[in-house]
Amino acid sequence: MLAPGDRQALVSLLAADGLSKPKIAKILHVADRTIERECRAIRTALSVPKDLNLVEQMVGRLMAEAELTVQRIRRTAREREVDSAVKIDAEHRCFQIVRDLVQSLQKLGYLPTATQMVEADLTHHVGELPSLTNLKAEIKRLRLVEGGDSSGSALMEVEQIKADLQCLLPCLNQVPRRQNLATKIFRRVRQP
User: Fold this and answer.
1) Which of the residues 34, 68, 70, 192 could staple to 30 if both were Cys, CB 3.0 to 4.6 A apart?
2) Burial 17-35 (b: 16+ CB within 10 A, else e)
3) Are 168 and 135 in contact (CB under 8 A)?
4) Which 3 state secondary structure label does DSSP give 49?
5) Is 53 exposed, middle or buried (0-12, 13-18, 19+ CB in 10 A)?
6) Each residue of 74-132: pLDDT tens digit?
7) If you count DSSP H runs as helices and E runs as strands, how many of each does the chain have, helices first?
8) What is the pLDDT of residues 54-67, one digit of tens each?
């Protein structure tokens, strides 16, 4: 029987070789659930806690690796026996590395993204507005409803609706039958 620490090391090694959990369990003569538990323990042991300094360190390392890679490519491309097509390809690869670095830094929030202007038309169409006689008929109907219900909450609700309709009556004489509002909206948004 293996000690738990030794079993974890073996599970880690066999999993890295690409063996499935059932195969690992068969090799070590243990249950599949044991291997699952060992894998969970390995993931927990290898997990990295959230740390803001880690992000900054990784960004610094990413920038250093990109710069070092570009230097190596350019140094190799400067040799005399290198074909001109290879030199051109090397410069293209250097450009791709820098472009990928910039995109990564933008995604992480270290560099701003290019802005674009979005222009849109907002049109709001109001259907047919009720006539003054229809509104008065609705008020009359609500008064009838008010008389049929003795509940205080329904009465308050009807009073609120009546007050809202009374406020609308003076406005209806000034509003055209069909209202069309068009507004230009300019927003600055980030490119995806």
Assistant:
1) 34
2) eebebeebbeebebeeebb
3) yes
4) coil
5) exposed
6) 999 998 898 888 989 999 999 999 999 999 888 888 888 876 666 666 665 556 777 77
7) 7, 2
8) 888 888 899 999 99
d(CA 64, CA 62): 5
- How far apart (Å, rounded) are the C-alpha atoms in residues 135 and 139? 6
C-alpha span between 165 and 138 (Å, rounded): 9
Phi, psi of 128 (to 5 degrees): -60, 125
Give whole-number Cα distances, 3 to 6, 9, 15, 28, 32, in Å.
5, 10, 18, 12, 17
Under 8 Å between Cβ of 82 and 76: yes
Q: Domain ranges in the chain?
A: 4-46, 52-112, 123-190
DSSP string, 86-99: HHHHHHHHHHHHHH
User: Exposure string (b/e) for 126-160, b if CB count within 10 Å is 16 or more?
Assistant: eeebeeeeebeeeeeebeeebeeeeeeeeeeebee
Total Cβ atoms within 10 A of residue 14: 18
- Please give the single-letter amino acid code of residue 67: E
DSSP 118: E
